[in-house]
Amino acid sequence: xxxxxxxxxxxxxxxxxxxxxxxxxxxxxxxxxxxxxxxxxxxxxxxxxxxxxxxxxxxxxxxxxxxxxxxxxxxxxxxxxxxxxxxxxxxxxxxxxxxxx
Length: 101
Known about the structure:
Strand content: 35-45%
CATH class: Mainly Beta
Strand order of the largest sheet: 1-2-5-4-3-6
CATH superfamily: AF2212/PG0164-like
Largest sheet: 6 strands, antiparallel, barrel
Number of strands: 6
Helix content: 10-25%
Shape: globular
Order of helices and strands: EEHEEEHE
Number of domains: 1
Radius of gyration: 13 Å
Number of helices: 2
């Protein structure tokens, strides 16, 4: 399962419509769902989240990815990262992601 880590993908940056200025995300590829679901169940963290190390451009940080009701997973991208990398909503973001124990 972890032989393929870290993972990398590119996806568009989007906002949660209920709170446009506060919550900005990237959706993870659906192919990662089985692995993340297994990690989420094993770790028993809040909301089934999985802790990760993330790199976008020159910025690296620790956060968690979260499952959604439709079975997909999302990665929050905080303002400091967006500002440091010059990212705007709708931009394609290249993400290096590594699940943490």
